[in-house]
Amino acid sequence: MELPEVTLRLWHPEEAPRLFDLLSRPEVTRWFGESAREPLTHVDQARARIEQWALGHDAPLGTRAVVTPDRAEPVGSVLLFHAPHALHGEVEVGWYLHPDAVGHGYAAAAAAAAVREALAAGHREVWALTHPDNLRSRATAARIGLRDLGVVQGLWHDGESQLFVTDTP
User: Fold this and answer.
1) Domains recognised in the chain with CATH numbers
2) DSSP annotation string for 42-81
3) pTM for this one?
4) Between the CA atoms of 145, 146, 149 and 150, what dihedral angle is there, to the nearest 10 degrees?
5) Fewer Cβ in 10 A, N or C end of the chain?
């Protein structure tokens, strides 16, 4: 599986307009968890997120920009976080891209890099939950080798989710 080169790093404050452009799009935020589903309405909200992510950064956990060598601005974000309401400290990976960056393999490259970092940091496994209708994210999870455990109801998030997990070595 050949994936494009990506770098994961913190978002820079001057990139708030790009983050706003990304997170103000309903076609992007519609797949987010309940608490983050509403699109941003002002660039100051993006600035606040960047500040929050920098303060809360605990590598490899956190939200990071996905940067490619051929683009000046980040193409999206990858997230590694303790799953909400996790019973055993489960770590979840998530990703989202700007619509102008979809279809190039960036999501798979970023998610795969984040999973590698989590496993290298000692996490036994990494989980991913997607909306069952989010076919692109389901394909990304499969492309990076996450095992599909099927649809689950109310695990960490309200409603149905398609559940994926890394295979433990």
Assistant:
1) 7-165 (3.40.630.30)
2) SHHHHHHHHHHHHHT-BTTBEEEEEE-TT-SS--EEEEEE
3) 0.92
4) -90
5) C
